[in-house]
Write a structure and sequence with these properties.
Layout lengths: L1 H13 L3 H17 L3 H17 L3 H18 L2 H17 L5 H21 L3 H12 L6 H17 L3 H15 L4 H17 L3 H17 L5 H13 L3 H18 L2 H17 L3 H17 L3 H17 L8 H13 L3 H16 L7 H12 L4 H18 L2 H20 L4 H7 L4 H14 L2 H11 L13 H4 L11 H9 L32 H8 L3 E8 L2 E7 L4 E8 H19 L4 H22 L10 E4 L17 E3 L3 H9 L8 E5 L6 H11 L4 E3 L6 H8 L4 E5 L2 E2 L9 E3 L4 E3 H6 L6 E4 L8 E3 L3 E3 L1 H7 L4 E5 L8 H13 L4 H9 L7 H9 E5 L2
Parallel strand pairs: 1-4, 4-5, 5-16, 6-7, 6-8, 8-12, 12-15
Antiparallel strand pairs: 1-2, 2-3, 9-10, 10-11, 13-14, 15-16
Length: about 850
């Protein structure tokens, strides 16, 4: 193809056919642009534009300027691209010898360039209006229609309108099938991205894998595809997979010499490494982007890399106060180029750097600039603008405005979160409100009483768990959904490595819009008042913990009063907890008696230290507790810190919902033993003698479909299975059953929630905390689906030795005790002098009120 186009260029040049020469150069530029060779494409279009302008051909000029706008947009020269679109539209208006159909066709192409500029700048509403206007044009070309429908689908998905997004994307895919394999692959890639964001992970990953094969068949480079996969994985907080995909994109662009796209992929990789906590690598990557973008004279990407570098150094604890001037120049440049999102990021980075300097008041200007710019962007950018505005108010000493901005931002975030289809997406979205929550807490601790502080904590605590997510009918919930893996772990690996194998998975769970009549959302109660909460506590004491300025603080609700109690520095608690993790790991499988003794001494010291830091200041000795941890405190063995029963909960509202559920506990019992777990059959057999009418599923009978159907709605379910933890996204942690592993996400989607649940597997109680005071994992997912009490361990447990603890627990549950009281009594029967006994005594915790 390129040879044919070059032949046309040579012929037009030799015959001095200037209009034909310009058109041929435009076609040759398209070839280079398809290979991401933007510099050469821009050079050819410059020449074509001079030819068109010299000979007064307005139509050719409009076409060439439109093509150059697209190339400049790809180069990051957003303002220059906008000038080209304006000039092209002006040239089109001067053209007289053109039919109405051709005029509309070219106008549609140029308006697509304008809409794409607004789209990438974050002006989603403006872009959507233009895309819809183009779709209403009768004579827009098929190519333009496909691109517009594809881009519109991405905007609709970004705004949470998933069904409409899916329909628009499906339209683009259908039409693109007639435009060749390259265009078809690009539209299917968007379709896969939307499927992932709709919560249909298996379906989306399967299509991503198929798209990779299509790219190869069309001899298309896979760099852009890898970036799309990285974006989808990052949105699901599957950061190792996202990083692997971004690394593949970087390698692909380096191998093919497409260094413009390499810069963009490397920037995405740096962002992911920073999100994954690897600030050192993020800094190295940003430095490489700075060098490469400087040689390319791509000032916008240079500015982005500068912001990344400053953020990475700040995360490493290095001095960034000297970055302020450079960051301000970067922000101004990005703003001039119309890159709204990156400009806000740069202004905020400048403000944060200024706050660390000798004159923090100078940060106000940068923060206010970020706030003003963000107000013009999409919802999540506006939330970031609220953070900037609230921080600026704190700098100015305006507490009322700071809390008002934080409250407004959290309200906007709640609106966005409610549009997301899965609990993990909602929980991850809450991270955008983490700073807003801490700003409000900081002010209220100084200016308000404990009741207001508790109410504010609940505003940011486990909000995703209270979302209205659909329950599925028994026919769907009980179905065995897969002939292979339910969680497409292999697909994750294949997609990021570019292998492109198909995923063995059945149809995705229906969305809320597809549910049969009669199936409604589960009820969600309003947060309780303090008096209602105290009534539900029935003499127990609530301790809810928050974080502010590097310190923990507790609100204590006892039968007589509510009070705020300052606790320890977060760093001191982390220092006390870290040795305990290693000690429990050694005690679960000690290499020698001496090793076990040393680990036990270390564990005892850590427990005493944690008790002194977290509970003794609260003065709750002798009280039965309900503890609402925050952040890393979800990994603390709370039952081992207190001598009375302890119940845990993701929020006070969540615990209150389990305490005030109206229906009586059912008498049905389900006992499940997974395969390959030493002692599981013995454990289930012993429990079956206690629960004479239990439904028992042994290691060979514990097939996923049967287990999911059995536990749904059971009064008590006991699962003795291997646990496969995923720390980066615990919704993909899994329990191993006879035919496959069942993930937390499946249990949550299918509504497989017993009233009470015992998870006798390693790490099943180790829910993971995220920014914004959210938690994800087995326990939180089950509580969100209506389970009222859970017992689970935060660490590895000795398989055989846990049987005695489980028997003692179930005897008390059968006698009518709550999970917290039954576990407390069962722990009292354990011989703590043995390593295995101590681990079991220490690591199991009770959650909820039942």
């Amino acid at each position: 193809m390129e040879a044919d186009v070059r032949a046309l260029v040579a012929r037009a040049r030799s015959e001095r056919a200037h209009a034909a020469h310009a058109v041929a150069l435009r076609a040759l530029a398209a070839v280079h642009r398809a290979r991401w060779e933007h510099t050469e494409a821009a050079r050819l279009l410059d020449t074509a534009l001079r030819l068109a302008a010299r000979h007064g051909d307005a139509i050719v000029e409009a076409e060439v300027r439109g093509a150059r706008a697209a190339v400049r947009h790809g180069q990051g020269r957003v303002v220059a691209a906008g000038r080209d679109v304006d000039a092209a539209l002006a040239a089109l208006s001067r053209a007289s010898d053109v039919s109405a159909e051709d005029r509309e066709r070219l106008r549609a192409f140029l308006q697509l360039q304008r809409a794409a500029l607004d789209h990438n700048a974050g002006r989603l509403r403006d872009a959507e209006v233009q895309y819809r206007r183009i779709l209403s044009m009768r004579h827009a070309s098929t190519d333009v229609t496909v691109r517009v429908a594809n881009n519109l689908a991405m905007i609709l998905a970004a705004r949470g309108r998933y069904e409409e997004a899916h329909a628009s994307s499906a339209r683009a895919v259908e039409v693109a099938a007639g435009l060749g394999p390259a265009t078809h692959a690009v539209t299917r890639q968007t379709h896969a991205w939307i499927s992932v964001h709709r919560g249909r992970l298996a379906e989306g990953l399967a299509e991503f894998a198929e798209v990779a094969d299509a790219y190869r068949s069309a001899a298309m480079p896979l760099g852009e595809h890898h970036v799309e996969v990285a974006e989808a994985m990052a949105d699901l907080r599957l950061l190792p997979e996202a990083i692997a995909a971004a690394e593949a994109a970087v390698e692909e662009h380096a191998r093919s010499g497409t260094w413009l796209m390499w810069v963009e992929a490397q920037t995405r990789l740096a962002h992911l490494c920073l999100a994954h906590g690897d600030a050192a690598r993020a800094r190295d990557l940003a430095t490489a982007v700075l060098l490469r973008s400087r040689t390319q004279r791509r000032h916008a990407w240079q500015a982005r890399a500068l912001v990344l570098d400053s953020r990475a150094r700040a995360a490493l604890g290095l001095d960034v106060s000297g970055d302020v001037a450079a960051l301000r120049r970067a922000a101004a440049g990005l703003q001039r180029r119309g890159d709204l999102v990156a400009a806000v990021d740069a202004h905020m980075a400048a403000g944060r750097a200024a706050l660390t300097g000798q004159h923090p008041a100078r940060a106000r200007g940068d923060l206010e600039a970020a706030s003003r710019l963000a107000a013009r962007g999409p919802l999540l950018l506006r939330v970031r603008g609220r953070v900037a505005s609230a921080t600026a108010a704190l700098v100015a000493g305006d507490d009322v405005r700071a809390v008002g901005e934080a409250r407004a931002g959290l309200r906007d975030l709640a609106s966005h979160r409610s549009s997301l289809p899965t609990m993990e997406l909602r929980a991850l979205a809450s991270g955008h409100g983490g700073e807003l929550g801490e700003i409000g807490l900081r002010v209220l601790l100084r200016t308000s009483g404990p009741t207001q502080v508790l109410r504010w904590m609940e505003r940011t605590r486990a909000a995703a768990l209270a979302a209205r997510l659909p329950l599925l009918p028994p026919a769907v919930a009980g179905a065995d959904r897969a002939s292979g893996e339910a969680l497409p772990e292999r697909a994750l690996r294949d997609v990021v490595r570019g292998v492109g194998h198909a995923v063995e998975a059945s149809a995705a769970v229906p969305s809320a819009a597809q549910l049969p009549d009669g199936w409604q959302d589960p009820p969600v109660g309003a947060p309780p008042t303090t008096s209602a909460l105290r009534g539900a506590l029935g003499g127990r004491v609530l301790v809810e913990i928050g974080v502010c300025d590097g310190r923990y603080v507790a609100v204590v609700v006892d039968p007589r009063r509510t009070r705020v109690v300052p606790l320890a520095r977060t760093a001191d608690v982390v220092a006390a907890a870290r040795p305990l993790v290693f000690a429990l790991r050694r005690l679960a499988d000690p290499s020698s008696p001496q090793s076990g003794e040393a680990a036990r001494l270390s564990a005892d010291v850590s427990l005493r230290r944690l008790r002194a830091l977290l509970l003794e200041p609260c003065a709750v000795e002798g009280e039965e507790l309900v503890v609402v941890p925050v952040g890393a405190l979800h990994q603390v063995p709370w039952a081992a810190l207190h001598d009375r029963p302890v119940a845990l909960a993701p929020s006070a509202t969540s615990w209150w919902a389990t305490a005030t559920a109206g229906s009586a506990l059912a008498s049905s019992v389900v006992l499940v033993a997974g395969p390959g777990l030493r002692g599981a059959q013995e454990e289930v057999d012993a429990l079956a003698r206690l629960h004479r009418h239990a439904d028992v599923l042994g290691p060979t009978a514990s097939r996923s479909g049967d287990v999911l159907a059995a536990v749904r709605g059971a009064g008590l379910a006991h699962l003795a299975c291997h646990g496969v933890p995923r720390i980066d996204n615990p919704m993909f942690s899994a329990l191993v059953l006879a035919d496959r592993a069942v993930t937390v996400q499946e249990l949550h989607e299918l509504g497989g929630a017993p009233q009470r649940l015992v998870l006798a597997s390693c790490h099943a109680g180790a829910d993971v905390a995220y920014d914004g005071d959210e938690v994800l994992g087995f326990v939180s997912a089950m509580l969100a689906r209506g389970t009222r009490g859970v017992v689970a361990s935060i660490a590895a447990v000795p398989d055989v030795e846990v049987v005695d603890l489980m028997l003692a627990l179930h005897r008390r549950l059968a006698a009518g005790e709550t999970m917290a009281r039954a576990l407390h009594g069962a722990r009292g029967e354990i011989d703590r002098d043995t390593p295995a006994g101590f681990v079991n005594w220490c690591t199991f915790g009770a959650h909820g009120a039942a």
